[in-house]
Amino acid sequence: MHFRFSTARHSSGPNEERGMLGKIGISLFLSLFLAAGLFFFYMLSLEVLDRAAVYQWDKSECFVHSSSIEEQSGDNPYLIRVLYSYRYQGVRYENTQISKEEPSYDKYTRASKALAPYKQDTPVDCYVNPEAPSEAVLSRDGLWIAFFLLLPLVFIGVGGGGIYGVWSASSDTGKSRGAKRATSRDASSGSNTVRIIGAIFFLVGVGIFYPFVVVPLWNIYDAQSWVPTECTVISSYVKSHDSDDGTTYSVEILYRYMFNGENYKSDRYEFFGGSSSGYDGKKQIVKQHPRGKTFTCYVDPDTPSEAVIHRGLSWMALLGLLPLFFIGFGLLMMTISKKSEKKKKSLNAFSSIPRESGVSAGPLELKPASSRMTKLFGITFAALFWNGIVSVFLYEVWESWNSGSLNIFLTVFLIPFVLIGIALLFGILHSFLSLFNPLPIITLENGKLVLGGEIKLRWQIQGKAERLAHFSIRLEGGEEATYTRGTDTYTAKSTFYRQTLYETSRVREMVRGEATVQIPKDAMHTFASSNNKIVWKIVVVGDIPKWPDINREHIISIGPMEEV
Q1: Section 506-512 average pLDDT
Q2: Pairing of strands 307-308, 294-299
Q3: Residue 61 pLDDT greater than 90, yes or no
Q4: For labelling, which of 218, 406, 409, 472 has a CA lying 20 to 30 Å from the CA of 392?
């Protein structure tokens, strides 16, 4: 048998044998990620650049002549109005623009808080456009929105990087052996890429978690010391919010109160705001607060314009689980990348010849490469993570169906993601059913194996062996070559040796038995380095009709041929 150890043979591996149709199908799927990422990145970039331009304007002193909150129709009924004047290069100007976008709010509380710095007959800072002095703003929008550029970068990285990997997988098949060999530095660059993507997921999760979970929870804690105050309902109703994704509802209760001799208004019901489906529950809350009713609200003594009716937790807090998926997945990617890099570095410290000091010369019971429970936990975690995220968007589609305004684009966009989620659920079922399979126990008569020697093994099946229609044991030798292309790391696998040790369809012969096989002399012994591996394994296969089959791999170590 001829065996050649070289990374140049990676093109024969299964990872490199994709047909043109397969590449096109994968590329079309990945292009959904790429297109969505590019679109959202472009739109967010325009917003960031528009906000950043205001930071180049000149700071000036303005004088507020009047300020008020006006009501209008729509989802954001509260509009703040401020009339102010300023002088720039000796010329007096008047303006009403507060920021680049006209500020309107869905809650009276938010509008009141935004108007607080601009009291009538007071000086304030403003920012004047030096190229058009008649244009000015009182407030510069924050650049925090640039943080969300990380989110579409994840989609761009997955889509663009995946497409590049698919079409460049065989681009250097004819290159020399030396050009393909990956260095330790190349391997670590691949780990860094995974780590960066994990960090992006983590930061996005933290960025969402803080304003939508941490801040409301802190407000709930702080509100426990707020002052109970008598409040009177001005108006109350259930507000509907119609969109392409369906209709959601929110509680709208506007109330007034007096604190330290001054009159205030507020419409905050709870700290976890927003709208959601479910009309009846919100209708019941509004019914308990009719117009003119006097009740107890809670007022912040340090900022009397801040008040709330319900200062406890609500089921809306469960939305905090969504960013936890991003945080958890990001941490998992960074942890796996770190462990992988440590493992690669540690392999460089070992000789290319395997050490046999830890291998027993007596009987050795083989353990599978991965247990059935490990597979079940792994597929369950993947399914929960994937479907947890997809379900949020799927819920929006369901709401649009109920409202009669189906969001066609979102529905079509979600189809491949839903199919993947369903496949993962079937994977859980498959792994769970396999827990009840008959269990083959493989024992080597001598755990110390060398090229040219013999493998003597015994097997015994625990459980109902009669369920098996076919049973086989084979010895396989395979090569794994790791190489890099750009910042991506690939592993090509190929099998150079395969021999059946035992095969039968008779139940009585399956239950227990033994077999002997000669290890070829001219093969390559077990080998492990940072970029290449020679892996020997004993594969046990059992076919079970209408049930998950048995397919267990047991890694073994075969040393070099001993000299006499």
Answers
A1: 87
A2: antiparallel
A3: yes
A4: 218
Residue linked to tokens 């493989």: 442
- Walk me through the domains of the chain, giving residue ranges and CATH numbers: 56-139 (no CATH), 225-310 (no CATH), 439-559 (2.60.40.640)
> Which tokens sit at 410?
């979102």
Indicate if the pLDDT at residue 437 is higher than 80: yes
CA–CA separation, 251 and 243 (whole Å): 18
Tokens (6 digits) for 277: 């489906």
> What would the two tokens of residue 49 be?
């650049």
Q: State both tokens at 453.
A: 């020697």
CA distance to 16, 377, 512, 544, 554, per residue, from 548 (Å) = 28, 17, 21, 7, 19
pLDDT mean across residues, the chain = 78
What gap in Å lies between CA 327 and CA 202, rounded to an integer? 4
* pLDDT tens per residue, range 191-240: 566 677 777 778 777 777 777 778 888 888 888 899 999 999 999 988 87
SS (H, E, C) 371-416: CHHHHHHHHHHHHHHHHHHHHHHHHHHHHHHHHCCCCHHHHHHHHH
Phi, psi for 66 (deg, rounded to 5): -155, 150
Whether the model clears a pTM of 0.70, i.e. scores above it, the answer is no
